[in-house]
């Protein structure tokens, strides 16, 4: 009888202590005794918990083993076994490691786990755009917003937004800030540029145009595919050179079909321009008018890696009043250092039909647009910014300006049978991005300000 009372009292005491610990240690998830879970955990740490952690005498709420990947805690202190038999919170090897031995002061082995691997205390790892350091057995991660957010990709691809997203390996590991800083590079248009007189027609209606128009079908072989600016924030130079090259081919009726050199602009148009740290499109057009550019073959991208800012070739006026290159091509394999120039740029009105008319009659146009974080992930379809995907960045701070080349338009029924009108535009993130380097974006609604500032020029040679 007395034995039973004793047992009963002991049990009550143990349960009280257990409750006490549950209450005292916040956020601890007790190790559940599911055999599958234990097996999974055992593979994580090779079955060593208290063997790594050390055994602690008495009650020591810090004497735990934390599995980062499973978000679970178990104990290696003597207290864990003081409850009823099969107490829930001892580490699996507590019984073999700590019970066989006299319990010693802990020889603490700290460290962290990630993806089933053990890392020593102080180790750093990269988790997408954030580096994490193992401190006191916990990962301490920076909390930058990453450019590629897997849950945003999932949201877009699971949703019915009219376009699909992709995890681009070239963006993985970059923060959103770095994406904005390195992958765009067009200064917001100046008030003077926005005040430029707009070419207006107004007399035309949409039905005067074909439903579908692409510059490269209209002028085969004369329209230049997108280049890759990589981490050089110079979309100002890429969009300008590309629009000018297309218009030179069209204006010369195919006599000159060279692509123009954005590197020439980046390295030589340095007045109020920041090269790979951004520039203005009006500055680029002024340079093209005054000095002109050599071809992309003559002055390829990222040519002088040791000093990319050194201007490789410029131009001077010869006796006949024509601009001539100051030097042979930086790329010695290209013999022609011909200088190409265009006239003054002009602004097209933001009317959809005015933009269409300009493209159909004279070729691709330059457009300045807002880039939001979801745009980086665009893979295919008709892009429309998905509101509320700014993450932690709010309002104005979650977008930047960029410039691109619009090459045509079209319309397609969406999933609900509604007609969706779109522009077809060339980006400068290489052909692996989007639809072979191009993207389609909603037309007629000034999506991302794409219709706000449209620039073109005449290039007659
Ligand atoms: C671990 O679990 C706690 C408590 O439920 C939770 O607050 C925490 O966010 C989890 N951590 C991870 C990395 O899942
Ligand atoms: C995204 O791509 C990167 C690099 O290719 C890869 O390391 C990462 O695991 C991918 N992320 C997801 C969620 O698929
Ligand atoms: C690269 O720039 C450096 C420094 O301006 C110059 O000395 C060198 O000749 C350039 N190299 C080429 C291939 O243009």
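Sequence proposed for the structure above (461 residues):
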């Amino acid at each position: 009888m007395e034995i039973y009372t004793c047992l009963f009292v002991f049990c009550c005491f143990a349960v009280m202590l257990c409750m006490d610990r549950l209450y005292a240690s916040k956020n601890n998830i007790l190790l559940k005794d599911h055999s599958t879970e234990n097996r999974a955990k055992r593979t994580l740490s090779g079955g060593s918990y208290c063997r790594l952690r050390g055994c602690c005498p008495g009650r020591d709420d810090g004497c735990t083993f934390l599995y980062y990947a499973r978000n679970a805690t178990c104990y290696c202190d003597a207290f864990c076994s003081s409850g009823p038999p099969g107490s829930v919170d001892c580490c699996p090897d507590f019984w073999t490691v700590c019970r066989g031995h006299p319990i010693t002061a802990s020889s603490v082995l700290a460290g962290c786990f990630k993806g089933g691997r053990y890392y020593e205390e102080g180790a750093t790892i990269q988790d997408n755009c954030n580096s994490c350091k193992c401190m006191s057995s916990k990962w301490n991660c920076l909390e930058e917003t990453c450019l590629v957010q897997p849950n945003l990709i999932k949201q877009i691809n699971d949703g019915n937004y009219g376009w699909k997203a992709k995890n681009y390996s070239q963006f993985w590991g970059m923060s959103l800030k770095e994406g904005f800083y390195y992958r765009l590079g067009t200064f917001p248009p100046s008030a003077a540029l926005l005040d430029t007189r707009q070419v207006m027609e107004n007399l035309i209606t949409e039905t005067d145009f074909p439903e579908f128009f692409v510059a490269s079908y209209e002028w085969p072989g004369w329209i230049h595919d997108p280049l890759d600016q990589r981490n050089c924030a110079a979309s100002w130079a890429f969009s300008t050179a590309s629009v000018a090259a297309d218009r030179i081919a069209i204006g010369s009726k195919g006599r000159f079909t060279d692509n123009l050199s954005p590197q020439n602009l980046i390295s030589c148009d340095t007045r109020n321009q920041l090269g790979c740290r951004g520039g203005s499109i009006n500055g680029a057009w002024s340079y093209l008018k005054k000095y002109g550019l050599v071809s992309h073959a003559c002055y390829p991208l990222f040519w002088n890696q040791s000093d990319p800012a050194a201007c490789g070739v410029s131009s001077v006026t010869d006796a006949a009043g024509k601009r001539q290159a100051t030097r042979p091509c930086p790329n010695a394999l290209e013999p022609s250092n011909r200088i190409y120039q265009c006239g003054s740029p002009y602004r097209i009105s933001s009317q959809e039909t005015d933009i269409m008319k300009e493209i159909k009659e004279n070729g691709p146009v330059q457009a300045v647009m807002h880039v939001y974080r979801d745009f980086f992930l665009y893979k295919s379809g008709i892009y429309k910014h998905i509101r509320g995907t700014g993450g932690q960045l709010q309002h104005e701070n979650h977008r930047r300006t960029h410039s691109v080349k619009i090459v045509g338009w079209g319309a397609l029924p969406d999933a609900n049978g509604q007609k969706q009108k779109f522009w077809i535009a060339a980006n400068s993130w290489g052909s692996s991005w989007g639809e072979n380097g191009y993207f389609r974006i909603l037309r007629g609604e000034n999506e991302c300000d794409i219709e706000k500032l449209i620039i073109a020029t005449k290039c007659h040679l």
